[in-house]
Design brief:
93 residues
């Protein structure tokens, strides 16, 4: 069974890759994103310890993928986006 590509691999596959640069001849195209990237390091640490609870929901596969791509592009966390949307919805009554 083939391994499913990660979200960052899918995004990189759909974007043109700049390729190796003069300053980095060993660079491999498509490896710019990694778990220590600025987007993933912006995530607030310790949400589980600060009174947050996990919420499991079912959404269409295409919506989940589009949301994850947009959140990654904006350097935001899905939990923060969902929280923002739910707070607005609850406030509207």
């Amino acid at each position: 069974m083939a391994k499913r590509p990660s979200l960052s691999e899918v995004i990189k596959r759909d974007e043109p890759s700049p390729g190796p640069t003069q300053s980095d001849p060993e660079a491999t195209p498509g490896t710019e994103m990694n778990p220590a990237s600025p987007a993933s390091s912006q995530r607030e640490p310790g949400k589980r310890r600060r009174g947050w609870l996990q919420l499991n929901v079912y959404v269409p596969k295409e919506l989940r993928t589009a949301a994850k791509v947009k959140a990654l592009q904006e350097g935001r966390d899905i939990s923060d986006i969902v929280t923002e949307l739910l707070e607005g919805w609850v406030a509207d009554g």
